[in-house]
């Protein structure tokens, strides 16, 4: 599976992030994932490091690969190539769900659907999942632990709604002794998060979930357990959930 993207393509960045999950899911099944980035070597290297991409990334500084792939004027391209080197599928638009279905079709022979009861929905009294998050301010991975209030922007939250929800966060912060933690679904790109917060002069720490959060969002099927776009989750010192509600 080959993708071509420009560094400021949110569509391409989401697909690039999902490639990590696909590789882990299909480990040992022959899936090869490669990205070509329309960027200088330094910018491509920074992309790999910031997003912890575990697959080969090629810098296309002069755009020649884009021309060879006939992507002139398109910021993104997806290609599925079989072991014999024959092109099986090509598109200039794709969502992570499309990659999942293509991988399943070509590697398993069928497309699966999200199991309904595999992971219970997160509730009060349950422990908040111990997950890796990407610290967008410091450029490394960490874990969220201890007593805190987390505002989680799910993958259902449209990018155009980020500003209004972040404005509500600013009002909450004024009256909170300890500001809530801002955590975003992995289906947002770092650029979306950084630009949306910068537009409101938000200087708080920003975290991007490395994968879906069990009980809230499935990391492979991209299914959500909650209908709301944004959730406010409070935990105690041991990490147990004491409150969970929509951010309104």
* Integer tally of domains: 2
Q: What is the succession of H and E elements?
A: EHEHEHEEHEEEHEHEEE
How helical, in percent, are the residues?
A: 25-40%
Question: Mind telling me the CATH class of the largest domain?
Answer: Alpha Beta
| Unreliable residue runs | none
Annotated CATH architecture of the largest domain: 3-Layer(aba) Sandwich
Strand content: 15-25%
CATH superfamily of the largest domain: Glutaredoxin
Mean pLDDT level: 89
Based on Cα principal axes, name the global outline.
globular
Strand order of the largest sheet: 7-6-10-9-8-11-12
Structural class: alpha/beta
Using only CA atoms, what is the Rg?
A: 19 Å
The largest sheet is: 7 strands, mixed
CATH topology of the largest domain: Glutaredoxin
Number of helices: 6
Structural summary, described in words:
The structure is a single chain. The protein is α/β, with parallel strands linked by helices and 248 residues long. The protein has two domains: 107 residues, 3-Layer(aba) Sandwich (Glutaredoxin); 115 residues, Glutaredoxin (3-Layer(aba) Sandwich). It is 27% helix and 23% strand. It has six helices and twelve strands. The protein has a seven-stranded mixed beta sheet, covered by helices on one side. It has a five-stranded mixed beta sheet with strand order 3-2-1-4-5, with helices on one face. Helix 6 links the parallel strand 9 and strand 10. Helix 1 runs parallel beside helix 4. It is globular. The model has no long low-confidence stretch (mean pLDDT 89).
